[in-house]
Specification:
The chain folds into 2 domains: about 150 residues; about 150 residues. It has 7 helices and 18 strands. Helix 1 packs across helix 4. The N terminus is likely disordered.
Amino acid sequence: MATTGYSVNNNLTNKLWAKKLNVEVLKDAYISKFIGKGADSLVQYREDTNKDKGDRIRNGLRMQLTGAGVLEDNTLEGQEEQLITYSDDLLINQLRHAVRSDGKMSEQRVLFDLRTEAKAGLKDWWTDRLDTMFFNQVCGYTVQTDLRYTGMNTPTAPDSNHIMRAGNVSADESITGTASVMSLSFIDYCVERAKTLTPAIRPIKTELGDYYVMFVHPYQATDLRTNTNTGQWLDIQKAAMTGGQTTKNPIFTGALGVYNNTILHESARVTNGVNSSTGAAVTTVRRAVFAGAQAACIAFGGEDGPDTMSWTEETFDYGNQLGVAVGAILGMKKSVYNSTDFATIVCSTYAAQHNPS
């Protein structure tokens, strides 16, 4: 009787597992709900390097015209206004990781299948790495210099117009004490600044309206929850968060609440502060991030589709050991034009672990 089988090195096998892995990574990544192909997405997925060769995408920004124009039959010639444009480069590079068995006897001693466990382990690894890349970028966490953790692009510190610090101090290391914790007033200040900056920070369009997003660390979330003053945590819960309407858009999923058209999200990956003199982490400070549309961008190399991530299986020691490697060509970056953050505002506050009194 003739049978058909597929070995571990068969191309169809590899493509199937690559597809499974890619789907699960994108499903489980914290930032996946914020990624979209449109200009109204918080993290814009750029497809330029899917079809064309190259190791970078050059994003352009045209500033709004500000000239007064001319009235009636006054001469327009010679009164033209120059277009002002800026660019921002998103670099992509290859990142890979792998697992390898000790040998067939080791595999015999356990009940699980190595390939299945490799996929699970590498999925968790990639999920964590994508989320880490995002927060190192949008928080401007210059402490981290290893490009493998920063989306293949060097993080840049927020400029002076795109960072706020508790106590109105000039450096993260100067933020001290419980009087400098996160409060809802930071959101009010961020919304005000987002609307009055040039260029203004655009909110993200959803079926329920236009919203900004703010990411806070769990320590900062606790500070918000335990603030019982009027106008603080007890007053931010909106009907939309409890009425089931938020299921229409993924950016509401898992949100803490909504305040001043800003959706609050909590993540332990929100980074520490950065010492302005030494460049080291300030462990008692966390950098919450207020974000609008096109706050960051992400791109992959290779053909667009389910096999963006590669899956390769190899055998070693005369077939005794099985190795599984997964890789992707990708890049992620905070949007910055003319040395100015485009759609993020960092909010540095005192943030420490809480203990019951």
